[in-house]
Please model this.
Amino acid sequence: MKVIVVGAGVVGCAIAYELAVRGVQVHVIDGRGPGLGATRASAGMLTPYIEGHSAALLQLGVCGLEQYDRFISRVSSDAGAPIEYRRIGTLQIAHDDAEAGKLAEEDRALSAMGVAHSLLSGREARQLEPALDARVTAGLRIPAHGYVGVQSLLSALVEAATRRGAEFSVAHVHAIDGAAPVRVETTGGALSADAVVVAAGSWSGGIVLAGRQAPVRPVRGQLLHLRLSEPPVSHVVWGAAAYLVPWQDGSVLVGATVEDVGFDERVTVSGVRRLLDDGERLVPALGNAAFHEARAGLRPATADELPIIGASSSMRGVYFATGHYRSGVLLAPLTAALVADQLVDGRERRELALVRPDRFGL
Model:
């Protein structure tokens, strides 16, 4: 079986790897190359109990997190390369009574779900993380959370998939015709395959699909990469306006803006200024950090903020894996498994019911 995967972000590369492991001949096509879109500007957070804003998204996120230990072990082994991956927990913090009240609500919800966590006073939060701002009034720790170094993961996925026979090429895809075989029109010419997986993120909507288009819109997120001699915190720290992700080498990622500005991938002065201010409000010592880099990416959002995953109901041989918005890294292993199970084995896992393409007429 030959499958073309359109898009080489973390989702597309995870799918390519999973398909290649199952013996599929995989060709990945991307207009820029692996990981140069939204993936490049991702902080790699694995935090479903914070970002699961709906019951469906929470269910998907928890399922995705449960797969991560084994997924990282497999990819690292197959690639022969280490991946920075740590389940160091999150620490949400509050600066006032209103924010503390929201943490108390989350405490009750987590208790009802049986999720291990700790609701902390401001003093207890600062004892746990001494670098926190002195005005912190409360904290909420969730030890199951963590992060993955996205670039190390992406590189390992590409290497592991390549070792299994996957091919990567650079070209823009502008149309797909579902048939037998499926025809894919690219700037490098027409290609055919038994199936095609649309995993092009925000650019999925620009691909003509038998007169249809995936309803995905870009939302810009800007991210800062700062450097210190050692990590200022030991948890992923989450405030009302920003989050901090501490890497083992002393780097700290500060994110992220949420901007509905169309296909504008610029890093802006106002975005950088806002992130610096919000980051220092969490940990004042960031004011002494070295400024390494600012990045921006376009996150692919759908109307219901759930991804579109699975076989098309109207185009034979066409599958979708797009619209992951802020959860692409978290949901990459799950998405890869859902697509591979359905495409290769004809098996539909129950999570597909939450993300079916036919809810958007696809």
About this structure: The chain has a mean pLDDT of 96.
